[in-house]
Design a protein that fits this description.
Blueprint lengths: L9 H12 L14 E6 L7 E5 L5 E3 L13 H12 L4 H8 L3 H18 L8 E10 L6 H7 L21 E9 L4 E5 L5 H11 L5 E5 L13 E5 L23 H14 L10 H14 L3 H13 L2
Parallel strand pairs: 4-7, 7-8
Antiparallel strand pairs: 1-2, 2-3, 4-5, 5-6
Helix pairs in contact: 2-4, 2-9, 3-4, 4-8
């Protein structure tokens, strides 16, 4: 079988990272000055150039201050790992492709997901917004100290959620989604689905005066008090009432079908990553939100992910 690592050149990886991080030339990470001198190459990586700032004397390289710094794996391995994450491969699949131990990949991918989530720009939604909630089964996988604190035995079978709505405490994790029609989406893991909880999220993401479409769930009843127009559709009336035409133009504009379609995409995307814990779920959700919003695939997606990871 072909070792895919041999098809990637470290020097080209460093060149790409350099161009993404410093499109106008190398600058000191501390002061931002362009007055830098080359100082040879890294001791253990011959393709990794080093620099020294003339102003402050600080020595640095292309990976200084990024998620790629301080690891023994070559940069090409990290770049390939990012690429495979964009393809939505599981940790086991990535390990097989890169000929690495699963444990190594399980250490790399959380750092990369977190690196994307903390660097992505805040999203502000405006205009026509669809809001809806869904529930994901998520426990404390890999967190025996939390299980012991709860005073219950570890599970031998996969988690099975109870019927109806849930909370973070009973391991049926609520996720609130807000989608701007023909725009971006924001998804947030919640401890519960109370009005006080969703108010904090919705008012920080949705611009005042926006028109918010929801289902009939009463947690959305106070949207007008929070500064929004609100229209809802009653799903209990059956499939023929899942969308409503209010102005008589023949277009059924009152619905949350776009958001429900997004939930189907999210569930399919999470399926290869079996048994995600509550502690890691926000990073998975944030990563998927980023990938969905930039609307890129393949090499274009890899470019966007690397640009986010090395951004100041």
């Amino acid at each position: 079988m072909i070792n895919i690592q041999h098809l990637i050149d470290d020097a080209k990886c460093f060149e790409v990272v350099r161009q993404l991080r410093w499109p106008n030339g190398v600058r000191c990470p501390d002061g931002g000055t362009a007055l830098v001198n080359k100082r040879g190459f890294h001791t253990h990586q011959a393709r990794r150039p080093r620099y020294e700032c003339q102003a402050c004397g600080h020595q640095f390289d292309d990976l200084s201050g990024t998620v790629f710094e301080g690891h023994h794996q070559p940069l090409r391995v990290w770049v390939l790992c990012v690429y495979f994450m964009g393809l939505n491969l599981s940790n086991e699949q990535i390990a097989a492709e890169l000929d690495l131990a699963v444990g190594e990949v399980q250490t790399m991918t959380p750092q990369l997901r977190e690196g994307i989530v903390v660097k992505k720009k805040p999203v502000q939604l405006t205009g026509e917004i669809e809001a809806d909630e869904m529930y994901l089964i998520a426990g404390h996988k890999g967190q025996p100290e939390i299980v012991a604190k709860e005073g219950r035995p570890g599970r031998r079978r996969r988690l099975k959620g109870k019927r109806g709505r849930g909370t973070l405490a009973d391991e049926k994790t609520p996720v609130l989604g807000m989608l701007q029609r023909d725009g971006e989406v924001v998804i947030r893991m919640l401890p519960n689905v109370q009005q006080a909880t969703i108010q904090l999220v919705m008012t920080s993401v949705i611009a005042p005066g926006s028109l918010v479409y929801t289902d009939e769930y009463n947690i959305y009843d106070r949207l007008p008090e929070w500064g929004y127009e609100h229209k809802s559709v009653n799903h209990a009336m059956g499939d023929t009432k899942r969308a409503r035409d209010e102005d008589g133009d023949g277009f059924h504009e009152v619905h949350v079908n776009t958001m429900e379609g997004f939930w189907s995409l999210l569930r399919s995307w999470l399926r290869p990553h079996r048994g995600i814990s509550q502690e890691k779920l926000p990073w998975y959700l944030g990563f998927f939100e980023f990938v969905h919003n930039i609307r890129r695939r393949g090499r274009a997606l890899l470019h966007a992910l690397l640009a986010a990871l090395v951004a100041p």
